[in-house]
Design a protein that fits this description.
Elements (H helix, E strand, L loop, with lengths): L15 E3 L6 E3 L3 H17 L1 H14 L7 H13 L3 E4 L8 E7 L3 E7 L32 H19 L3 E8 L8 H6 L8 E8 L3 E2 L8 E10 L15 H15 L8 E8 L10 E10 L2 H22 L2 E10 L6 H14 L6 H13 L38 H5 L4 E7 L19 H23 L1 H15 L21 H11 L12 H5 L13
Parallel strand pairs: 5-6, 5-7, 7-13
Antiparallel strand pairs: 1-2, 3-4, 4-6, 8-13, 9-11, 9-12, 10-11
Helix pairs in contact: 1-4, 1-11, 2-3, 2-4, 2-11, 4-11, 6-7, 8-11, 8-12
The chain binds zinc ion (ZN).
C-alpha cells in the first residue's frame, strides 16, 4: 500500500496500528493535517452547490416509483462513472440497483440513500397549493430525490482529497432502491453486498439536522401479498357454481381487523386490495391483498406475520378457495452506531443549519398552513413554525416508542456498523407520503439542505479514513453492545426474489406524460426556472 504524503507545510505523524483480525496496517494522522482536510472538504462541497442542485432537481423531475428507477439510476451511475467510480449494475437481481466503487484498501466505507418516490404525489415545487406536474402521476412526496446528491458529492469531495494526498480507502455508493416498499436492502444483505464493508453512512431527508444512535423507535416490518384462487361463474345466473376469491380477501381483512384488538399498541398494520376481480357479473376467481405488518421487535413482527398467514388460511377455508402468499418487502427495526453518531453529530454542529431566506420561510409557513401542521412537534414538543434553525443534539435509544414507520436500512444496521444522517431539506409538520411533501424538494430549501448534508457526510468520511480508532470503537460497539444479545435473522430466504414487478404498470402509464418535464440543466438554471415558477408562489393566480 502507498503511504500518505503530507501536503507541504503540514507535519504528518504516523502511528501504525494493526486493525484487529485484518492484519492490515493503517496510518494515524496528525490533527493539523486532518483539520486541513476538513477545511478543504467544506470548501469543496460549497463549490459543488451547483451540481448538487442539478442532481436534486433532476431526480425530482424523474419521479420514479420503487423498482422502476431506470432514468434515475442511469443518470446517477453516469455521474459516478464520470467521476472515476466503477459501477456494477443489476445487483441482487434488481435491474435498477447498482454498486459504485472507488479507491482501494481499508477502510471500506459504504454510503447509501433512497431513490424512489410516492404514488399520486406529482406536484410542482415552490407553490404552496396542490398543483400536479402530471395529474395522477407519482412524485417525490417524501424527498428521496435529495439523498443521492448528499452522498455522491460528499464522497466526491473526499475522493478528490484522498487522491491528492494518496490516502488509502475504498468508497462504495449504493442506492436504496424501492425503499417505499422496503424492497431492496434485505436482499443486498442476503446477497453479501456489504460483506467487506467496515461502516455505512446512510442519509435520509428530514427537516432536522441530526444523527441518532441505538434504537430510534421505528418499527420493523414484513410486506406480504396474499392471493386467493377461486372459481369464476356468472354472478347472477349461476353464483352457486362460483368460489369468490374476493370474498376471501374481504374475510381476511375482517379477520385481521378483529385481530387488532389483541395486538400490542405498538403495532401498525395496513393493507390495500391489489386485485379485487374484474367486473361484478363475474365471480372473481382471483383476488389479492397486500399487507404491511409492523412491530418494534423481530419476534413481534414474526408473530404478526404468522397470525396473518393463519387468518388468510381461515378465509380460504371459509370460501373454499386456495391461498398462497409472497413476501414483497422486509425491514428490521434499525439500530444505529454510537461512536459513528457521535462523530457525525460533532460534524453536524460544525456545518450548522443552512441560512434560510425569507422566501424559504414564507413557503414553509404556507405549506404548514396548507397541511394543517400541528403547532408543536409530536416527538419533542418543539414549536412547528417555519423551517428549523438549529441543529439537533445527539439522541440515544428511546426508552419507549409508540411505533411508527420503517426503513430497510435496519437490515444493514444489524450487519455493519451503520449510522443514519438526517439532513434538513424539507419542511417540518407535513404528513409524509403526500404531494405536499414534494413542494420543497426542488427549491432552495432542498438544495441548501442537501449541501449541508453533503458537508456532514464529507467530514465524517474524513474521520473514518484518518482515524482507525473511530472504526475500532464503532466495531466494538457493534459487537459488544448492539449485537450482544440480539441476533439478526432475515425475514427473507434464498428463495424469495426481489419484487421487481411492482409499480411497472403505473410507470408504464405515466412515463411518457412525465418525460417532457424532465429537467434540462443545459437550458435552465433550476427546475423552478424550467417550470416558470416564481419562488415562492404562495397562492394560485387569480382566475385559476
Ligand atoms: Zn424514506
Amino acid at each position: 500500500m502507498k503511504f500518505p504524503s503530507p501536503k507541504p507545510g503540514f507535519i504528518l505523524f504516523f502511528v501504525f496500528v494493526t486493525i484487529a483480525g485484518r492484519g492490515q496496517v493503517a496510518a494515524h494522522y496528525d490533527t493539523a493535517f486532518v483539520e486541513s482536510l476538513k477545511k478543504q472538504a467544506l470548501a469543496s462541497v460549497d463549490n459543488k452547490a451547483k451540481p448538487v442542485q442539478e442532481m436534486v432537481d433532476m431526480v425530482f423531475s424523474f419521479g420514479e416509483l420503487g423498482f422502476q428507477e431506470f432514468e434515475t439510476s442511469k443518470y446517477l451511475t453516469g455521474v459516478l462513472e464520470k467521476n472515476g467510480f466503477t459501477v456494477e449494475r443489476g445487483v441482487s437481481g434488481i435491474p435498477t440497483a447498482w454498486i459504485a466503487r472507488w479507491g482501494s484498501g481499508s477502510p471500506v466505507i459504504a454510503l447509501g440513500s433512497d431513490l424512489d418516490c410516492i404514488p399520486k404525489a406529482s406536484q410542482k415545487p415552490g407553490v404552496a397549493y396542490k398543483s400536479p406536474i402530471v395529474d395522477g402521476a407519482p412524485g417525490h412526496g417524501e424527498g428521496h430525490n435529495s439523498g443521492q446528491a448528499v452522498i455522491i458529492f460528499g464522497a466526491i469531495a473526499v475522493k478528490e482529497l484522498m487522491e491528492r494526498n494518496h490516502l488509502p480507502g475504498t468508497l462504495i455508493i449504493w442506492p436504496g432502491v424501492a425503499e417505499e416498499v422496503l424492497g431492496s436492502k434485505a436482499w443486498y444483505i442476503r446477497d453479501g453486498i456489504f460483506k467487506s464493508v467496515d461502516a455505512c453512512i446512510f442519509t435520509h431527508v428530514n427537516s432536522r439536522f441530526e444523527a441518532r444512535y441505538g434504537d430510534p423507535g421505528y418499527n420493523g416490518m414484513v410486506s406480504v401479498q396474499f392471493s386467493f384462487d377461486g372459481e369464476a361463474a356468472h354472478a347472477a345466473a349461476a353464483p352457486w357454481r362460483g368460489k369468490s376469491a374476493l370474498d376471501a380477501v374481504e374475510l381476511m381483512d375482517v379477520g385481521w381487523n378483529f385481530k387488532r384488538e389483541h395486538l400490542k399498541p405498538t403495532q401498525r398494520s395496513h393493507y390495500v386490495i391489489t386485485d379485487g376481480g374484474d367486473q361484478p357479473n363475474v365471480v372473481p376467481s382471483k383476488a389479492s391483498v397486500w399487507y404491511y405488518f409492523r412491530e418494534r421487535t423481530y419476534p413481534d413482527i414474526l408473530s404478526m406475520y404468522e397470525a396473518g398467514q393463519r387468518i388468510a388460511q381461515g378465509a380460504a377455508l371459509m370460501t373454499d378457495t386456495k391461498m398462497s402468499f409472497r413476501i414483497l418487502g422486509a425491514a428490521w427495526p434499525p439500530h444505529f452506531n454510537k461512536p459513528l453518531a457521535e462523530a457525525m453529530t460533532a460534524n453536524i454542529g460544525r456545518v450548522g443549519m443552512p441560512v434560510w431566506t425569507d422566501a424559504d420561510q414564507q413557503l414553509a409557513r404556507a405549506v404548514q398552513k396548507l397541511v394543517e401542521a400541528p403547532k408543536v412537534d409530536f416527538e419533542d414538543g418543539t414549536p412547528i413554525d417555519g423551517l428549523r434553525t438549529t441543529v439537533d443534539a445527539l439522541k440515544g435509544s428511546v426508552p419507549f416508542s409508540m411505533g411508527g414507520g420503517s426503513d430497510d436500512v435496519g437490515d444493514i444496521s444489524w450487519n455493519v456498523p451503520t449510522i443514519q444522517l438526517f439532513y434538513p431539506a424539507n419542511i417540518p409538520g407535513t404528513k409524509g407520503h403526500h404531494w405536499a411533501d414534494a413542494i420543497a424538494m426542488a427549491t432552495p430549501i432542498a438544495h441548501k439542505g442537501s449541501v449541508a448534508g453533503a458537508k456532514a457526510v464529507a467530514l465524517t468520511l474524513i474521520d473514518l479514513i484518518t482515524n482507525p480508532a473511530l472504526l475500532d470503537s464503532a466495531k466494538a460497539y457493534f459487537t459488544n453492545v448492539q449485537t450482544k444479545d440480539v441476533h439478526y435473522v432475515s425475514f427473507i430466504t434464498e428463495k424469495d426474489p426481489p419484487s421487481t414487478f411492482l409499480n411497472k404498470a403505473t410507470m408504464d402509464k405515466y412515463r411518457d406524460q412525465m418525460r417532457p418535464f424532465y429537467y434540462n440543466p443545459a437550458k435552465y438554471k433550476t427546475y423552478l426556472d424550467q417550470l416558470g415558477i416564481i419562488y415562492p408562489t404562495l397562492e394560485p393566480a387569480a382566475g385559476r
